[in-house]
Write a structure and sequence with these properties.
five-stranded antiparallel sheet; about 160 residues; single chain; globular; disordered N terminus; 14 strands
Length: about 160
């Protein structure tokens, strides 16, 4: 698998799991590695001649805990989803392949905004903790599809706007 991220500026942990799943973790806050970090899993494309077939890695289910909300969304070309953070909710978001897109995030109020681009060549899993503002921008010419599993049901009072793109 060819990496789609430039990881030269970040500490990286690479682990190989069953079924050749390669895990890449980007630590966004070197001073506090266990809070306000978004983890990125490059799942590639798996399936056969019938199409894509994907199972979330156990780490994603462990991160979310009991799933209390599943959200499916799309974004039109140039559209942005996010620009917010959750006060308590943990979210595992799957971004489907096919369209170029970019992830924009921070590691908490007052931290630097980060950005990574993806060519849409594979499935990407994002593990988003409480407090990390995040946004996905569709940089392609077709609809971008995402599926998110969360640890709490949607509650507008628990979502705080903080622009990162």
């Amino acid at each position: 698998m060819v990496p789609v991220l430039d990881l030269t500026d970040f500490p990286v942990t690479v682990r190989v799991y069953k079924h050749s799943l390669v895990y890449r973790e980007i630590c966004l806050d070197n001073k506090n590695l266990f809070m306000n970090r978004i983890r990125i899993y490059e799942l590639g494309t798996t399936g056969d001649d019938r199409g894509l077939n994907l199972a979330l890695p156990p780490e994603a289910l462990k991160f979310v805990g009991k799933v209390k909300d599943v959200h499916v969304s799309s974004s039109i070309s140039g559209g942005v989803r996010g620009n917010h953070y959750h006060l308590r909710k943990r979210r595992a978001m799957v971004v489907m392949p096919g369209v170029a897109w970019s992830l924009h995030w921070d590691a908490g109020k007052g931290t630097a905004i980060q950005r990574r681009s993806f060519d849409g060549g594979g499935v990407v899993l994002l593990l988003i903790p409480p407090g990390a503002s995040h946004a996905v921008r569709n940089d392609g010419n077709a609809d971008l599809w995402m599926v998110a599993c969360s640890s709490a049901p949607y509650d507008a009072s628990q979502v705080v706007m903080r622009t990162v793109v």
